[in-house]
Design a protein that fits this description.
CATH topology of the domain at 86-247: Lysozyme
Number of strands: 0
Structural class: mainly alpha
Strand content: under 5%
Shape: elongated
Number of helices: 9
Helix content: 40-55%
Distance between the termini: 84 Å
Length: about 260
């Protein structure tokens, strides 16, 4: 209960002498309201901060996923690990071999049916020496094997791939070397749709004389027609049919 002004004046009190009301100090109640607002505001700001951090994390995760997807798509074709399954090359290799050697791993220039000289049982270094001697004896070509590798080509592949000269020139090695030549001529680019089948087939004709040159005048002839040694033994439609497996090939995405 408040004291009257008169009582306070009699006692010499100032206006500040009034005792608190039963409900408490009004000024303290009023001071609590701004404090409560500040606390509420701080809580709101903390919630907002947490929400912003969550949004940033989600955005960063999305960026990582996108970058990973793009990188995997690029690596699918451009990674050094990118390889075409050798089985996809088989129709093309068989078509090439049909014209070059009748599919004989022991063939040599002038004798596609050779069985006497077993190149598949010889070390590759010995094969290279045989080629050198063969030309020295008067042969117009040093071509050997299922894919008719001439000596400069075979020697270059051995050096490039770091092949030990003591390794046998067997079926597996000959297929491996032929695939390397396919890749040199654009097999990977063909799989990536960067080369048309006509362009790739024309490239292959420069590697294997038994294939038709595809482009230019007399496209059914060998690229090396007129040299007195070579002629096309395979038709263009046979080449295109053999390329079908590569045209539809889908390389696996590396992990």
């Amino acid at each position: 209960m408040q004291l009257s002004h008169r009582f306070c004046n009699q006692k010499g009190y100032t206006s500040s002498c009034y005792p608190p009301t039963e409900g408490g100090d009004i000024s303290k109640k009023q001071n609590k309201k701004p404090a409560a607002r500040i606390v509420s505001l701080r809580r709101s700001l903390r919630r907002l901060g947490r929400d912003r951090r969550r949004l940033v994390k989600v955005a960063l995760l999305a960026v990582v996923v996108i970058l990973f997807t793009v990188t995997m798509a690029q690596r699918q074709f451009t990674s050094p690990e990118f390889q075409v399954d050798p089985a996809a090359y088989e129709p093309l290799l068989n078509t090439i071999a049909k014209g070059e050697s009748r599919g004989n791993y022991n063939a040599h220039f002038g004798n596609a049916t050779n069985k006497k000289i077993r190149f598949t049982e010889m070390p590759v270094g010995e094969v290279l020496q045989w080629q050198k001697d063969f030309v020295r004896k008067g042969s117009a070509s040093s071509a050997v094997g299922k894919y008719q590798f001439i000596r400069p080509t075979l020697q270059g592949l051995v050096q490039q791939l770091g092949i030990d000269p003591r390794v046998r020139f067997d079926e597996k090695l000959q297929d491996k070397l032929a695939i390397k030549l396919l890749e040199r001529r654009g097999a990977h680019a063909f799989v990536q749709k960067k080369l048309t089948r006509e362009q790739f087939a024309a490239n292959l004709a420069k590697e294997w004389a038994a294939l038709p040159k595809i482009k230019g005048s007399n496209p059914s002839q060998s690229y090396y027609a007129g040299d007195g040694l070579n002629k096309a033994r395979i038709k263009a439609n046979e080449v295109y049919k053999a390329l079908a497996a590569l045209e539809t090939y889908e390389p696996p995405v590396p992990i």
